[in-house]
Design a protein that fits this description.
single chain, 2 domains, 20 strands, 26% helix
Length: 322
Amino acid sequence: MNEERHESLMQASVIGLRDAMGLKPEETLLIITDEIKRPIGLALHEAGKGLCRESIFVEMRSREINGQEPPPAVAALMRMVDVVVCPTAKSLTHTNARREAVAAGTRVGTMPGITADIMERCLNADFDKIVDLTNHVANCMQGVKEVRVVSEAGTDITMNIAGRAILPSTGVLREKGQSGNMPSGEVYVAPLEGMSNGTIVIDGSMAGIGMVKTPITIKVNNGYATEITGGEEAQKLTAVLDKAGPDARAIAEFGVGTNYKAELSGLILEDEKVLGTIHIAFGNNISMGGNIAVELHIDGLVKSPDVYFDGKLFMQKGKIVA
């Protein structure tokens, strides 16, 4: 890493810890990384040492899939500090370790698949602008019972979200027990299990697979993916879901991107935040108020959709009109 890139990464690390996570001089920080994301983990650790009372650096072996638990010793350590930041190849967001840390009052920023480019681009955004748009979208979703997504690529799916919590993720995590992605910018909800029906055509990217060359067509019946077709990406998705078990095929999440700085990069951490897109995830949704506890959470991105809330147009070809 050249000196200019290193300085830029360090600046983004400081902004992320100080402004997004609200790290204070009297607090303790834990950086959890793996062999794949070690340089970013070390940059955050170095930045943290200048911002707080104690910065602790832990490297574990990279997990095999998103949502796989960290080692018990790491999980225990997460409950013993004020702030945890997780630049890892696979996501720790949908894990018991993160949920238990939050319950203990730790605030947790997860950064699955993070790259230096994403950090430099998205952590230099106007956080207030992202917060305002995120809250606006969340307000539009309050009280909605039915979401319908339609796209020119072939998506046409209806999801029931009646009574489920609408969760804005601004990427600004300054209060005790808060958690989310860093960077962020999305609003998401766990649709009611067993009540989603239709077709999803993933034409953006798929978590763990990357940019989709051949769109993945997923038939959904009563809340579960029953048929997956397409090219090589569809085969990879099928293999991942089958390895995790039947509940990995459950519709877990519907989300709307609200980060104007985010760009399609093939990395879902950034992709699912892109303004003008929606994402639908399969698998675990315990963290967002659902009932699916499988050890997998995998998101797929739909570009330029039309989105209807209770029959009223909210987004047209990716542009919010509400």
